[in-house]
Amino acid sequence: MHADIVFTGGTIRTGVADAPVHDALAVVGGRISALGAAALAACGPLTTVVDLAGGALLPAFGDSHVHPVMGGLGLHGVPVRDRGSAEDIVEAVRRWAEEHPDAEWISGDGFDPWLAPDGRFDARWLDAAVPDRPVVLRTMDHHTAWVNSEALRRVGYTADTPDPVGGEILRRDGSTEPLGTLREFGALSPVLALVPAASREAQVAALREAAAGFAAAGVTWVQDAWVEPQHADVWITAATTRPGLPVRADLAFILEPDGWRERIARFAADRDRVESAAPGLLTARSVKFFADGVIESGTAALLEPYTDCPHSHGIANWSPQELAEAVTAVDALGFRPHIHAIGDGGVRTALDVIETAARTNGPRDRRPVIAHAQLIHPADLPRFAELGVVASLQPLWAQWDSLMTELTLPRIGPERGGRQYQIAALLASGARVAFGSDWPVTAYEPLRGIATAVTRQTPDGTPEGGWLPEERIDIETALTAYSAGCAHQAFEEKEWGVLRPGMRADLVHLAADPVETAPATLTGLPVLGTWLAGRRTHEAGASGHVPAGRR
To answer: What is its EC number (predicted)?
Structure first.
């Protein structure tokens, strides 16, 4: 049988450990049919021949934890990302407000939380630019918001308002008056609920814009790690109407403590509706939980108190007993728990509740996910492998950047600071690792994360030799975490993630072989093409690229 497509003229890396490289690959009916000489022999008069031009063909990338709708919508608010100071952000807000006089609310996402001392942003700074309309800006991690006085007034936060459950309203020094900085969803959600929701059409367009960017980065599968009820229909519409989507996705329904028993009642029906609407493209087999917050805002749950705040262990978003009940309940429905856990206290709680669910519901192949796992107590590290937990890690975070030096390390001190983002240690323990971006928190391009995982350096090469160099990994391992690691998380390791006959032709064409490329230059390695089951979804120069974030 003649092939539909034959790739030749470069290096074919299969993604299989210790496997030889090949010089050709053939595709028939969206699946790989042959490698090497057999692939070349499959050329026929109607075969499309793709010249790799000396580059490399590899398994396409996945993203184990990302927020496509949220990120796509965030591209169109106030452009606060990558601003160099709080003053720059205020000026951006001023300009945007002048250009959009009819906008009821003014919002933006992605500013750096270290741009104010101790991450304390003042409402009065924004009042100077926009005093008469509410302004809400979220930090890059989305766990903190900076609001103006009008937004505080609209939500009803006053000097007499107590901190809500699962959140913190920062106060002015020496008083109980709200400062203008809100931490964690207990404090953020009441404000965000007042912001007019984007229309269905706008959400679909945002998703498509984000998905085009993923394809341009070589990504063909994503884990949407925060799906509100309306987002399922956004995904269905984008997937089933022209031009469709260039990526597959698994949807993780968000479950929060308030009223969780009532909400899970609809999850099974929503799962069936999603999967019947777009079979082979969409699944909805995960449920998202937040065990804690983030270290930078002092809300990640720690086993020992914060160094700079000895009375605080952070914020646990659930009580351990309630989280165990909820995780056990969704596990019994056949869903995979996907738990955000940053601090070592949050990670321990996540491991404990996963263990409880397995003990209660009996043995099966679960592949529960703990996302981020920034700080793990040494006693808990082997439990990932023991419990079959997939560690969804964001390698781009593992660097000595301003977030680390200005906020993270002062809050946890040198001992805990020296055991962050233990990628190599988790892999050595036998744990399954899948890489992701958490975009729009940070850039979604896998090559950027791979470069950081291999070097543990910032883009300018700091520090020499890498930060916590014992946690560096080699390039092949990093590539695997972004491909086969994600396929394992998706329960689709028999379908994609490596290149062998019978597998889906989910492929990425890079301008050079990444294994033979200097690690520091991987970030700039062009992605020349991406294929989803043999269908080209990206061709260099033929599609736009969504602007990336940074950490």
So the answer is: 3.5.-.-
Cα separation, 473 vs 336, whole angstroms: 28
The amino acid that residue 158 corresponds to is T
> Residue 419: how many CB atoms within 10 A of its CB?
18
Closest CA to 474 of 437, 546, 418, 423: 423
As a whole number of angstroms, the distance between CA 456 and CA 109 comes to 26
Helix (H, G, I), strand (E, B) or coil at 173: coil
**Which residues does residue 515 pair with via DSSP β-bridges, in sequence order?**
none
Question: How far is residue 110's CA from residue 549's CA, in Å, rounded to a whole number?
Answer: 8
pLDDT of the residue at 321: 98
Q: Say yes or no: domain 63-67+200-539 is CATH 3.20.20.140.
A: yes
Cα three-residue angle 160-186-351, rounded to 5 degrees: 140
Q: How far apart are CA 176 and CA 186, in angstroms?
A: 18
All structural domains of the chain with their residue ranges: 5-54, 63-67+200-539, 105-192
Fold of 5-54: Urease, subunit C; domain 1 (2.30.40)
pLDDT at 200: 95
- pLDDT tens-place string over residues 473-483: 999 999 999 99
Q: What distance in Å separates the CA atoms of residue 445 and residue 450, rounded to the nearest whole number?
A: 9
Which residues in the chain show pLDDT less than 70? 542-551
* CA atoms 242, 280, 283, 435: torsion sign: negative
Q: Any idea which residue has 């390698």 for tokens?
A: 395
Residue pair 21/44 in contact (Cβ under 8 Å)? The answer is no
105-192 has which CATH code?
Answer: 3.10.310.70
- Give the E-state strand segments of 157-277 in sequence order: 168-171, 178-183, 219-227, 248-254
User: What's the CA gap between 450 and 551, in Å, rounded?
Assistant: 15
| Digit-coded pLDDT (tens) for 441-495 | 999 999 999 999 999 999 999 999 999 999 999 999 999 999 999 999 999 999 9
